Task: inverse folding
């Protein structure tokens, strides 16, 4: 049995997993990313955790280490100016890791890692062309064409979450206005619900009883599935916007399927029904009946590690 290490670098936590070639995560360990201000110490401790995982599972050899990280650059093996990490500038992650463990190290951003994970371990095993959208704090995406990850000239291709979907729309963290993620991320869903409540002062449903600062996208989804009108309208809006964005995405890569993943996707049909409707109504006719819309087969709590481990197969 062959093994790889998959690492998901987040702003708060770093999850490190020992992954078998069949996609089973054998064991996991964790580091508190936000406690580190020294990149060298962080990577040294990460390497120590990898060795601990291997030792306690009697694994003496690994095929490589895949790392999904914010602003991860596959070409340079570095993290470049990640806004949510304490160590700034360029961190030469792959080079520094190889100084501790002599093996193949591949770095990519987390959304690209998820796409590769879907291809290697998930529902896209038998597909050559597909797109993934990850709905979470932001909206990430990964594009696979001919079973190859699209990276572009700078390793940053496929930032569909930052395609402008509404001119002059909401201000995005990237500095522009109207980006897809300002409407379809978890925060975007919450914001839409709050706006709708403000526009409907007579509304007195379940969401009205939740303090705005405590409201989450999951609460809005639960309310929608219970028939709450603001919850339903929120997901109608979100699904419509995302469906249009997905229809636009089809025109440049002609995928066989689009996979959705992330917390908001678990709202189910209250999201998927308007999404499919908007997608079909806005899809260029030459692509009709050629694209499946699917929910990822990978569990949310495993996809980041599996995706990172799958990077070594690129």
Result:
């Amino acid at each position: 049995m062959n093994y790889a290490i998959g690492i998901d670098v987040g702003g708060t936590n770093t999850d490190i997993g020992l992954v078998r070639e069949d996609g089973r995560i054998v064991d996991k360990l964790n580091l508190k990313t936000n406690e580190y201000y020294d990149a060298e110490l962080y990577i040294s401790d990460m390497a120590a955790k990898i060795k601990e995982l291997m030792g306690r599972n009697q694994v003496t050899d690994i095929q490589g280490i895949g790392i999904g990280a914010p602003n991860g650059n596959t070409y340079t093996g570095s993290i470049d100016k990640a806004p949510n990490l304490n160590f700034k500038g360029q961190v030469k992650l792959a080079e520094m890791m190889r100084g501790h463990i002599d093996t193949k190290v591949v770095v990519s951003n987390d959304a690209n890692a998820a796409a590769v994970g879907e291809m290697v371990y998930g529902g896209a095993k038998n597909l050559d062309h597909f797109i993934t959208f990850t709905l979470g704090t932001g909206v990430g995406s990964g594009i696979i064409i001919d079973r190859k990850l699209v990276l572009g000239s700078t390793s940053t291709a496929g930032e569909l979450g930052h395609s402008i979907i509404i001119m002059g729309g909401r201000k995005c963290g990237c500095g522009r206005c109207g980006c897809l993620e300002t409407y379809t991320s978890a925060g975007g869903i919450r914001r839409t619900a709050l706006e709708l409540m403000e526009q409907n002062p007579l509304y007195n449903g379940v969401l009205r009883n939740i303090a705005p600062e405590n409201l989450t996208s999951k609460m809005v989804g639960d309310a929608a599935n219970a028939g709450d009108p603001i919850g339903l309208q929120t997901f109608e809006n979100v699904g419509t916007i995302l469906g249009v964005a997905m229809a636009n995405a089809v025109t440049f890569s002609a995928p066989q399927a689009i996979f959705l993943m992330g917390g908001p996707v678990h709202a189910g049909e209250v999201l998927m029904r308007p999404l499919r409707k908007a997608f079909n109504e806005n899809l260029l006719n030459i692509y009709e009946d050629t694209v499946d819309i699917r929910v990822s087969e990978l569990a949310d709590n495993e996809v980041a590690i599996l995706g990172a481990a799958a990077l070594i197969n690129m």
Observations:
- The CA atoms of residues 48 and 220 lie 41 Å apart.
- The chain has two domains: 3-116+302-313, 126-296.
- Residues 229-253 form the longest helix (25 residues).
